[in-house]
Design a protein that fits this description.
The protein is an alpha+beta fold and 271 residues long. Helices cover 38% and strands 15% of the residues. The chain is built from 9 helices and 10 strands. The strands form 3 sheets. Strands 1-4-7-8-9-10 form a 6-stranded mixed β-sheet, sandwiched between helices. A two-stranded antiparallel sheet has the order 2-3. Helix 1 (5-18) packs parallel to helix 8 (245-255). The radius of gyration is 19 Å and the shape is globular. The relative contact order is 0.17.
């Protein structure tokens, strides 16, 4: 089977839906053309997580301004600092100086702590401590957004972006396997050369990139070489490795399972 870019996007949207990552077309997203954060999602997440601590909109807006102040002109260093902040959290100096500093997580990693070998009682205790509705659930806002226009030095339209709490953590670029002379290396070049040059603000928050033509599907860092982009060839450790169209399924169902994606973002990115 040969995918057009349109049919590939549709297949990915359907696979994400199975992983409880809903799809939004770029036309439906409320933001300014130059913005890459979905500020409303980040505000909603932080209000939900820290309302019991009395977090204010002014404090949340301060967190967003702090993220946006990291310079895209120093992309590697800014990306390194932001990913560390996403992984480890940050300390918020309170608007009311009489209040203690507040430790903030931009992503809810509480589901990673609800291990299967814990008793049900222990899992419920962890859930209560992290304000989750039930053991193993996270409170993050996941979205897959395709065809989102971003105005940087030039206007660019990434094929797909996975957002968590308004943070653009994964960028997809698709190519048509049936188009003569086109390979997924062209998708790699599109991301790591043209997009990095024209819309560097997007990549301040990037955990990793995905390049795909439906048959060939690879994952890697924005800063790595093409040879260091690899397929995600099985969902579970005991599975047989797969290639071709099956590797699209194994990548989405394996890597983009909520818990596994959070685990990769928090524990398997190294600068």
């Amino acid at each position: 089977m040969v995918f057009s870019e349109e049919s590939l996007e549709k297949a990915v949207v359907e696979l994400f839906a199975e992983e409880q990552i809903p799809h939004y077309h770029g036309d439906t997203i409320h933001k300014e053309m130059g913005d890459v954060l979905l500020r409303d999602d980040l505000k909603q997440f932080l209000l939900n997580q820290y309302s019991h601590d009395g977090i204010t909109l002014k404090e949340i807006n301060g967190i967003i301004r702090m993220l946006e102040r990291f310079p895209s002109s120093a992309l590697y260093e800014s990306n390194k600092a932001i990913i560390k902040m996403i992984s480890d959290g940050l300390v918020l100096k309170r608007e009311d100086r009489n209040l203690k500093d507040l430790y903030i997580n931009l992503v809810d990693f509480s589901s990673l702590h609800a291990h299967l070998n814990k008793s049900a009682e222990d899992q419920w205790a962890l859930a209560a401590e992290s304000h989750s509705e039930y053991p193993g659930k996270d409170n993050n806002i996941f979205k897959f957004v395709n065809q989102l226009e971003i105005q940087g030095y030039e206007k660019r339209i990434p094929d797909g972006i996975v957002y968590i709490n308004g943070l653009p953590l994964v960028v997809f670029e698709f190519k048509n396997a049936g188009k003569e002379g086109t390979t997924i290396k062209d998708a790699f070049t599109q991301l790591t050369v043209r997009y990095r040059r024209d819309i560097p603000e997007l990549f301040k928050y990037n955990a990793f990139c995905v390049i795909s033509d439906g048959v060939n599907n690879k994952i890697g860092s924005l800063f790595s070489s093409y040879d260091n982009f690899y397929a995600w060839r099985k969902i579970n450790p005991e599975d047989e490795p797969v290639d071709g169209i099956n590797s699209l399924h194994s990548m989405i169902r394996g890597l983009f399972n909520h818990k596994r994606l959070l685990d990769v973002i928090r524990n398997f990115i190294y600068f």
